[in-house]
Amino acid sequence: MDYINDPRFQGLKPFENKIWLSSPTMHGDEQKWVDEAIRTNWVSTVGENINVIEEQVAGIVGRKYALALASGTAALHLAIRLCAEKLYGQPPAGQGSLAGKKVFASNMTFAATVNPICYEGGTPVFIDSEYETWNMDPKALEKAFKKYPDVKLIVMAHLYGSPAKIDAIRKIADRHGALIVEDAAESFGASFQGAQTGSFGDVSILSGNGNKIITGSSGGFLLTDSEEDASRVRKWSTQSREAAPWYQHEEMGYNYRMSNIIAGILRGQLPYLEEHIEQKRQIYRRYKEGLKDLPVTMNPFDEKNSKPNYWLSCMLIDPKAMCRTVRGDKDELWISEQGTSCPGEILAALKSYNAEGRPIWKPMYLQPIYRNQDFVVAVKGQKVLDVGADVFRRGVCLPSDNKMTKEEQEKVIRIVRSCFE
Ligand SMILES: *Cc1c(COP(=O)(O)O)cnc(C)c1O
Q: Which domain holds residue 179?
C-alpha cells in the first residue's frame, strides 16, 4: 500500500531520520563509568558500578535490596524460582520448582513475563485485563481462585508504564495466601498511591533493556526486602557456588549476574530517569490533545491513584470507527473506508513515512505456544469476548521516542489523522 501518494496525506514527506518507537537515549555520563571500569580493570561481574547501581535502584524504588542481573527476563526467572521454592521447596535437579503447579499470570503482556513460569515446569493460567488500566483484572483473578483454590503464585505486569490495580490484587493474594511476582519492567519510576511500582510484589523486577525508560543496553534487577532472599539470588545468579575451597554445589546455578560495564551505563542513565518520564509525559499529552476529536482514546491509567511513567503512548480506536479487518496468525488485511481506520493501516502508514509504531502485546492465550492453557475472564456474556483480545484488535502503540521533537510528533499526529479521512 502506497501511503506516500495517497491523497488523504496531502503531499506529506517521509521523515528523513527514522522516528523510533522507543530507542536508547545516552547522555554522556555513561561513558565515564564504563571508561572507569575499563581503566581500573573491573570489567567482570564485580565492581563499583554494580555496588552503586544496586544501592541507588533500591533507594529509588524503596526496597531494601536490588540485585543487578543480566536481564529483566533473568530477574523474572529467579523471582519466580525464589517464590516457588518458598511455596513448594527445593526440587531435585532436572525438575522445575513449579513442576505440576499452576500459576496465575497476566494475559496481555510481553511473553517474557510468562515464559519463566514454564522454565520452572509450571503451567500458567491467564487472567484477563480490565479496561481502566489494561492490566490484570482483580475480578477475573478472584474468579480464578474459585476455580483453582490451590494456586499460590501470581505473576502480574504493569503495562506500558501504567500501574495495575495493585491494591486490589494484593488484597486478593493475601486472602488466598498467595505470593506476587511483580513485573515492573515497563514501569520503572511509575507509582501507585505514592509508592513506586516494584515495591508491591513479594519479589519484583525491573528491566534495563534497550527500549525501556532507561537502559544499560541490557540488564535487569530483582527487588526484595529480605536479606536472605537477596543473598540467595546473588548466589544463584553466579552459578551457586558454596563456600568451599573447590566448586561445591548444593543448589541449581545460573550465569545471570550483570557485568560492571552494563552497570556503568545504567549508573550514567539513572540520573535522567525523571527527565525521560517528563519527556514521555509530554509526548502522551500532545497525542491526547492532537487526537482528541478523533474516535480514539489514549491508553488509560487511574488518574486518582497512580502516576504512570508514560513509557509508551498507545491509542484505542472506538469500535464504530474500526475499519473492516481480519488478522491471521502472521498477517492481516483491512479495507479502509472514510471515517474509519485500524491498527494495521496506521502501522503501515507510519512505516511508509519512516516512523515506527507497534501492535499492542498479543494476549498470551492467543499465542500458539500457549493455546492449551486456561484463561479466566471476569464476566461472561459481555459484548466483547474478552478485554485482552479487544484491546489487541483495536489498539496500537504510537512512536514514543523521547528524542522525537514537537514538530516531528505533529507530523506523526497528521499521519494518524489522515488514516481516518
Ligand atoms: C521488556 C520486558 C521484560 C523483559 O525484560 P528484558 O530485560 O528484555 O529481559 C519483561 N516483562 C515486560 C512486561 C517487558 O516489557
A: 29-271
C-beta of residue 66 within 8 angstroms of C-beta of residue 50: no
Atom of ligand 1 nearest to the CA of 112: 10
232-263: pLDDT as tens digits? 999 999 999 999 999 999 999 999 999 999 99
Domain boundary among 222, 246, 271: 271
241 to 46, 216, 253: CA distances (angstroms):
15, 27, 8
Q: Are residues 229 and 296 in the same domain?
A: no
User: Is 161 close to ligand 1, i.e. is its CB under 6 Å away?
Assistant: no
Among the listed residues 139, 143, 165, 212, the single catalytic one is: 212
CA–CA distance, 119 with 420 (Å, rounded to integer): 44
In a domain, 123, yes or no: yes
pLDDT for 1 beyond 80: no
Residue 212 a catalytic site member:
yes
Determine the pLDDT at residue 186.
Answer: 98
287 φψ region: left (φ > 0), alpha (ψ -120 to 50), beta (else)? alpha
Pair (203, 286) in one structural domain: no
Give the distance (Å) from ligand 1 centre to CA of residue 181. 13
Q: Tell how far the Cα of 13 is from the centroid of ligand 1, in angstroms.
A: 34
pLDDT tens across 34-83, in order? 999 999 999 999 999 999 999 999 999 999 999 999 999 999 999 999 99
Shared domain for 255 and 286, answered yes or no, is: no
Inside any domain, residue 89? yes
> What gap in Å lies between CA 254 and CA 267, rounded to an integer?
24
Distance from C-alpha of 228 to C-alpha of 221, rounded to nearest angstrom: 16
Q: How many of the other CB atoms lie within 10 Å of CB of 196?
A: 23
**CATH number for position 155:** 3.40.640.10
What is the CATH number for 361? 3.90.1150.10
Instruction: Specify the ligand 1 atom closest to the Cα of 207.
Output: 7
Residues 206 and 310 in one domain: no
pLDDT at 379: 75
How far away, in angstroms, is 126 Cα from ligand 1 center?
18
Distance between CA 179 and CA 58 in Å, rounded? Answer: 20
The pTM (predicted TM-score) of the whole model is 0.97
Structural domain contains residue 1: no
User: Which protein residue's CA is at the shortest distance from atom 11 of ligand 1?
Assistant: 113
2 falls within a domain: no
